[in-house]
Amino acid sequence: MTIEFTKYHGLGNDFILIDNRQSSEPILTDVQAVQLCDRHFGIGADGVIFALPATSPDADYKMRIFNSDGSEPEMCGNGIRCLARFLADLQAPSRTPQTYHIETLAGMITPQIQADGQVTVDMGVPRLTAAEIPTTLMEEDCRVIIQPLEVAGQTWKVTCVNMGNPHCITFVNNVAEIALESIGPQFEHHPIFPQRTNVEFVQVVAPDYLKMRVWERGAGITLACGTGACAALVAGFIIGRCERKATIELPGGSLVIEWSESNERIYMTGPAQRVFTGKLS
Ligand SMILES: N[C@@H](CCC[C@H](N)C(=O)O)C(=O)O
Fold first, then answer.
1. pLDDT of residue 1
2. Ligand 1 center to residue 66 CA distance, Å?
3. What is the pLDDT of residue 110?
4. What is the CA radius of gyration of the chain?
5. What is the DSSP string of 147-186?
6. How far is 235 from 167, CA to CA, in rounded Å?
7. Residue 37 contacts by C-beta under 8 Å, 6 or more apart in sequence?
8. Is 20 annotated as a binding residue?
9. Which one from 37, 160, 168, 225 is the annotated catalytic residue?
């Protein structure tokens, strides 16, 4: 049996996209996803994304994703922009704006392809209580805002945001100085995060411009993280360090994130790029 795939990236956060519309379960296992994501022995990617048929009458499709370590996250911001482009590329030549209602394990997410090719995603409402993150750092109904956390022999002041998936954000003076490779996994696997966590270090350049580096749960250092950029803006706004709308600069490029005052929803805008197609046998 051969399976076609297409490789996409969103700011260098790269994914193998599989047309899984004929079956309600992913046609590859988590173990196969790990093999395909391997950058030496496989295709190389931060994750594998499946376009599945919708189960809800309100949705067009369903997204499932495996991280490069085989774990299954609830949501992926850069991934859902890539999925929107993939679906548009599978269908008749584009009419824009094209909007998709996508079921995810974090609920309904709505990407819209703009006339200029950028994709704007309604990422939903951020969740902030300790129970929702989830973390045991505070009482269940408390928000985790600038709380001390011991990691790698240092006390960090962390703020936690759930954007469908968990994020732990620390504001620092200079993101370039953070030893992400050694510190990242210690945050990710800290016992206060029962479902592990994504880890973001953020530098405020201006109230409408943040710089961020990320250690992703299940994938390690990546060039960008869409949900992480949204979480960084939410954390920055809550602690009074940024505006409701800002550009987030990541190693792979920039995203524009806005936290709407009228409906409390987060809107993320950024690119999604097809790289190549191939066949798995
Ligand atoms: N890169 C993604 C997030 C992917 C999932 C993450 N690794 C997790 O386990 O939560 C993004 O762009 O949001």
1. 83
2. 10
3. 98
4. 18
5. EEEEETTEEEEEEEEESSSEEEEEE-S-GGG--HHHHHHH
6. 10
7. 16, 43, 44, 45, 46, 47, 48, 66, 68
8. no
9. 225
> Please, are residues 71 and 63 in contact by the beta-carbon 8 Å criterion?
no
Ranges in the chain, pLDDT < 50: none
ipTM of this model?
0.99
Cβ atoms of residues 226 and 80 within 8 Å: yes
pLDDT tens string 47-100: 999 999 999 999 999 999 999 999 999 999 999 999 999 999 998 665 666 999
- Least Cα distance to 169 among 178, 180, 154, 156 occurs for 156
Local structure of 8: helix, strand or coil: strand
8 Å CB contact between 80 and 14:
no
User: Does residue 216's CB lie within 6 angstroms of at least one atom of ligand 1?
Assistant: yes
For residues 250 and 238, is the Cβ–Cβ distance under 8 A?
no
Q: Is 132 annotated as a binding residue?
A: no
37 classed as catalytic: no
Helix (H) or strand (E) holding 215, with range, is strand 209-216
User: What does pTM read for this prediction?
Assistant: 0.97
78 lines ligand 1 (CB under 6 A): yes
CA distance 11 to 251: 8
